[in-house]
Amino acid sequence: QDNSFEQFIINYCNEKLQQIFIELTLKEEQEEYIREGIEWTHIEYFNNAIICDLIENNQTGILAMLDEECLRPGTVTDETFLEKLNQVCATHQHFESRMSKCSRFLNDTSLPHSCFRIQHYAGKVMYQVEGFVDKNNDLLYRDLSQAMWKANHSLIKALFPEGNPAKINLKRPPTAGSQFKASVATLMKNLQTKNPNYIRCIKPNDKKAAHIFTEALVCHQIRYLGLLENVRVRRAGYAFRQPYEPCLERYKMLCKQTWPHWRGPARAGVEVLFSELGVPEEEFSFGRSKIFIRNPRTLFKLEDLRKQRLEDLATLIAKIYRGWKCRTHFLLMKKCQIVIASWYRRYA
């Protein structure tokens, strides 16, 4: 019920993960259709980049202002930090505070004077400002690091490498918020170089009990995990897409004209293949470099046909091998019989 600095940075990380989910699924999905020249009606979705900017902007972000409060001289308290937020973020559509210049929250009794509220992607969260400055300014003084580094115990010495006199840095140590922000940036950079797969987990109830399904809770999670937008994009679009070359290589045995070798462009081969198989035209589209299949049933049908064809080819190979083996054995026996007969006639 009482959210402080720890929950704030956790929710910030969740926002960044949601942002990359949007980038890699909703945005990239629709941009690919445009790049490939597929006829497409754009589907609107909420991009939470504006919330991430509210938190991490280098000039006006909440973390930047928190660091500024921790570093500036004079009396610094959680109240002065909240005052700064109220001045800079007053007009932001996702920031709410009772003491801000925005009059629409002056009479909001659900929002205490010592709190601020952020309208996250997953809903509104209220943060108790008390402790923000101290928790962000959680510094280990140099003399303590140096004392621990001088300990005789090797483990303690290894835990405080910054205490080594040869590595003393006179700069002020980074705040907890800036360290977390840098870690999140590294994580996002790493994820963007990968091809992630998402598993969205839905909690059926808050009691962690079996056979209880709370419909309101499930609907809330579906709405705020971005699943509705994802389903709309997927249903309006294509369930499967693949470059022409690997598609032709995988399914070419299903058509006599493309098997065993197709002499021509891969796209033309795929067109001949789909025409020969009688796939309805509304079930697929040809992009500039990929084939797009709308319904999973079409793909499953292709896989079933391929599986059956592979079994037929395996039977054909086995048949030819058994014929070759029997013929070879027969010819060997015939040769042996001729040799035996010739020697017998010579003897007779």
UniProtKB/TrEMBL annotation:
SUPFAM superfamilies (UniProt xref): P-loop containing nucleoside triphosphate hydrolases
Any one GO biological process: actin filament-based movement
Annotated stretches, region: Actin-binding: 184-206
Pfam (any one): Myosin_head
Annotated Gene3D superfamilies: 1.20.5.4820, 1.20.58.530, Kinesin motor domain (3.40.850.10)
Domain Myosin motor residues, every copy: 1-307
Keyword Aminoacyl-tRNA synthetase included in the entry's annotation: no
Keyword Glycoprotein: no
Keyword terms: Actin-binding, ATP-binding, Calmodulin-binding, Motor protein, Myosin, Nucleotide-binding, Repeat
Gene Ontology CC terms, in alphabetical order: brush border; cytoplasm; microvillus; myosin complex; plasma membrane
A GO molecular-function annotation: actin filament binding
Xref: InterPro entries: Kinesin_motor_dom_sf, Myosin_head_motor_dom-like, P-loop_NTPase
Family named by the database record: Belongs to the TRAFAC class myosin-kinesin ATPase superfamily. Myosin family.
Protein name: MYO1B protein
Source organism of this protein record: Picathartes gymnocephalus
Source taxonomy: Eukaryota, Metazoa, Chordata, Craniata, Vertebrata
